[in-house]
Amino acid sequence: MDDFDNGLAKAFSDPICPTCATSYDPSHYDIYEDHACCANCGTEYQIPAEYRALHPEDYLEHGTPETPQTIALSRFRIEARRIVDTTSKETAGASYELYARRFTEACAPLIDQLDPELRDQAIAIANYHGYIEDQDGTAGFGPGLCAFSGIEENCCHCGRHP
Q1: 44-45 β-sheet, strand order
Q2: Alpha carbon distance 120, 138 (integer Å)
């Protein structure tokens, strides 16, 4: 009988969709948009903080022992954030593509220095900040676009065009 009472208490205390009363499913929580999405009707709604899933980077901070791999990834994460800050200041007012190219150029040597087993995780961290894995498609901005900013030459503000 206690299991039945505990099941009822859990069913009535967990978040539910305000539209169709479907129980909250943690796998349908959007970490980046900070809301839950009902699996039944698609309604987006807010849930209390204690029911929210951890951000993927929080798993590294809250549940992994200090190993050389986690230390290397933590250092990479800190360095990637530093590169994001400097690259975004350098490319302020330019196109996102220029930012992504510069960020990728600065991050690629750091990723190459990591242990091959950690590279996939480091690339996932860098992708969050705009890293381009396939650099073959980014050889240049193309005709009619500024080589510095990536913006159309007629609209570019860099001052290098007639």
Answers
A1: 29-30, 35-37, 44-45
A2: 21
User: At 150, is the secondary structure helix, strand, or coil?
Assistant: coil
CB under 8 Å to 62, separation ≥6 — which residues? 54
Distance between CA atoms of residues 135 and 130, nearest Å: 12
Residue owning tokens 């690259």 = 87
What percentage of the chain exceeds 90 in pLDDT?
12
| pTM, two decimal places | 0.50
pLDDT digits (tens, 9 = 90+) for 80-94: 999 999 998 888 877
8 A C-beta contact, residue 98 and residue 91: yes
Q: How many whole angstroms from its chain centre is CA 79?
A: 16
DSSP 8-state symbol, 160: -
Tally of residues, the chain = 162
Rounded Cα–Cα distance for residues 145 and 155 (Å): 9
Instruction: Map residue 151 onto helix, strand or coil.
Output: coil
